[in-house]
Amino acid sequence: MANHPSALKRHRQSLKRQARNKAVKTRIKNAVKAVRQALAEKNTEKATSALAVVSSVLDKAASNKVIHWKKAGRCIARLQTAINKVAA
User: Fold this and answer.
1) How far is it, in rounded angstroms, from Cα 18 to Cα 22?
2) What is the pTM of this model?
3) Which DSSP letter does residue 42 get?
4) Rounded to an integer, what distance in angstroms lies between the CA atom of residue 88 and that of residue 67?
5) What is the CATH classification number for the domain harbouring 64?
6) What is the DSSP letter of 66?
7) How far are the Cα atoms of 4, 11, 51, 62 from residue 40, in angstroms, in the given order?
8) Closest-CA residue to 50 (of 88, 11, 82)
9) Do the beta carbons of residue 83 and residue 51 sit within 8 Å?
C-alpha cells in the first residue's frame, strides 16, 4: 500500500473509477443482452427499441472513455445488421 498522501489519493481515485467503469460495463452487457433476447424471439420491434437504448449506453460509455469509440460503433453496427437479417 502507498504511504505518500498523493499516492493514497490516487489509489482512492482509482478505486472510485474502477467501480464506476464496472457499473457502466455491466449496463452495456445487460442492454446488449436485451437486444439479443428480442432477436432470439424474432421480435424486430422490441429489438429496434432496445437497440436505441444500447446505442445511447454505448455512446455514453465511449464518450467517457470506458470503452473505445470504435468498439462502440462496431457493436452497434453488428446488432443493427442482426436486426436487419431477422427483419428480412
Assistant:
1) 6
2) 0.87
3) T
4) 31
5) 1.20.58.110
6) S
7) 54, 43, 14, 27
8) 82
9) yes
The three-class DSSP label of residue 11 is helix
Q: What is the pLDDT of residues 12-61, one digit of tens each?
A: 999 999 999 999 999 999 999 999 999 999 999 999 999 999 999 999 99
Tell me the residue ranges of DSSP E strands in 1-88.
none
How many domains is the chain built from? 1
Which structural domain range is residue 40 located in? 5-87
- C-alpha cell recorded at residue 26: 455491466
Contact by Cβ (8 Å): 50, 35: yes
Measured CA to CA in angstroms, residue 36 lies from 19, 39, 56 at distances of: 26, 5, 16
Q: Read off the pLDDT band of 2 (50, 70, 90).
A: confident
Amino acid at 77: A
Could you give phi then psi for residue 64, rounded to 5 degrees?
-95, 10
